[in-house]
Request: fold
Amino acid sequence: MEQNISVGLDIGTTKIVAMIGRKNEYGKLEILGIGKSRSLGVHRGVVNNITQTIQSIQQAVQEAEAEAGLKIEEVTVGIAGQHIRSLQHSDYITRANSELVIDEDDIERLINQVHKLVMLPGEEIIHVLPQEYKVDGQAEIKEPVGMYGGRLEANFHVVVGQVSSIRNIGRCVKSAGLQLEGITLEPLASANAVLSQEEKEAGVALIDIGGGTTDLAIFRDGIIRHTAVIPFGGNVITEDIKEGCSIIEKQAELLKIKFGSAWPGENKDNEIVSIPGLRGREPKEITLKNLSKIIHARVVEIVEQVYVEIKNYGHEEQKKKLIAGIVLTGGGSQLKHLKQLVEYITGMDTRVGYPNEHLAGGNEEDVTSPLFATAVGLVMDGVKRQDRKRSEQVVNVMESNGDASNKENVGTENDNEPSRERRSFLDKLTERVKDFLDNAE
Reply:
């Protein structure tokens, strides 16, 4: 596979997407190929049938390879699912020598301490995201590196998930003949694809409505503050239509996409759609008003659960207000009048997020659909990972040449990048999953 090409693999409940992309000379993402297949072995974001999931991955990958004319070897995979939960935690370390400035190693030590938290059986910490720091009692410090102090404290956003679920995803990827380049939290990938830096600074809630789950990621001051996974998505709406109208799932899904609306007041009483009956039976007539009532009831339930999470974060406090409101993405965000309903329930400004912020012009229209937000985010993540590897190689070459002065310059440049030590945790998780899979053979 070419050096600067990256592949995102979004293993969802309804579909599996493989997306091949590369960065062009303007720093934008060029999509070379997309493969999509029905996801048969995944339930609410968790793999429950390894064989079927492997087949679906292979199908999506082959389709993307055919379109791009490239062979895929490594992929960046997203993890989500109902087993993901998050918690807030504060911790501190006492430094032996307060005469020395705080460096990355101190932060690393503090983060490693959080990793010793006792979790429920089978759970593991996936992500530790520092919020703000305190140095010797001085609060609200964004970046403590370079300061003096004896006691370093921090508030953390800790994301926890089930190890077995993550390993199962790793196993599927490996059995499909691919290598795991990296693992990323899906809400973070979607956020990178559809949110602007200004929104992340002002405060924004990203709601990614997938087939099996609805992911929430809240940003404020450019830092992720809260994540949650709600175990309902578009599939539950389809299920309700199927039950409520006594029709088969395929018809229910088509009805939802073509005629569905989240706002019952929009349809007149006499608007009717006729559905062919099964095997010679009479066709069924369904009023669109009834259809939108069924959809409305379920969507309200999902949005209210998300809003509870937004309130748990503290959106109602003046200091934590999300000025940029809500951004909806994912396949479920394409439901008619959903934006209006979300604004009505939450009272917050809402827009639908399209992943075109970082894409080069000239890509097909499909790519810019909210359906592909997570896949675009995963490709971006893979590209970033490769850039980081390259810059590390440059540093290593300089080190081996003994070019210390240059090395220091490069080093400080990297240290100023706040994502450095934070990203490494997902890299460590990737390494752990890779080791486990290698030893399990």
Summary: The mean pLDDT is 87. The domain at 234-298 is CATH 3.30.420.40 (Nucleotidyltransferase; domain 5). DSSP finds twelve helices and 18 strands in the chain. The two ends are 25 Å apart (CA to CA).
